[in-house]
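Schema walk-through. Below, the input block comes first and the output block second. Nothing else is stored per chain. Lengths vary across the set, and this one has 154 residues.
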Amino acid sequence: MSTKICRWIALYCCLIGNAQAGVLLEKLTFPGFVMQSDAISKSCKIQEDGTLSLDISLDGMNSKRSQPMRLTKNSIKSKINEAAAGKILSESFPVDVPTVIYKAYQKQANGSYTAITLYEANGGSGEKKTNDAQSAKTLMNFIDVNCGDPLAYR
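--- output ---
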C-alpha cells in the first residue's frame, strides 16, 4: 500500500471519533502529499480540566506532552454555544494539500458531547468548511495562541 494511501486512511481513522469527552477545543493538522521526512501531523487539545495536550507524529516518531492551563471555562463554553448556532459554509478545496481542522465540543444535558466544526480545510476530502459565527473565529484564534502555528493554514 502506498504511503499516500496509508496517510489518508490514518487521517480518516482519526476523524471518525467525533465527540471527545472532556475536550473543549481541538486542532488537527495533517501534511498532505509530501515527502515522508516532511509529513508532520499534530493534534492539540484543550481539555475541560485545564490540560493542554499536544501530540506530534513524524515518520514513525511520536511525541506527546501536556501542560496545565488556567481556563475561563464559562467564557469558552459561551463562545462554543454561539459557534454551535453558526451556519457551516462548504466549498471545494484542493486535494493532496495540508489539512487543518478546528473543532469545539459542546457538552449536552445527557453528558454526551457534540462536535462543532469551527473550520476545516481538508486536503483528503477536497472540501473546505467554515463556520460563519464570529465566535468560531475567536475560538480558532484562542486555539492558535495556545497550540502554536497561528493562522498556519487559513
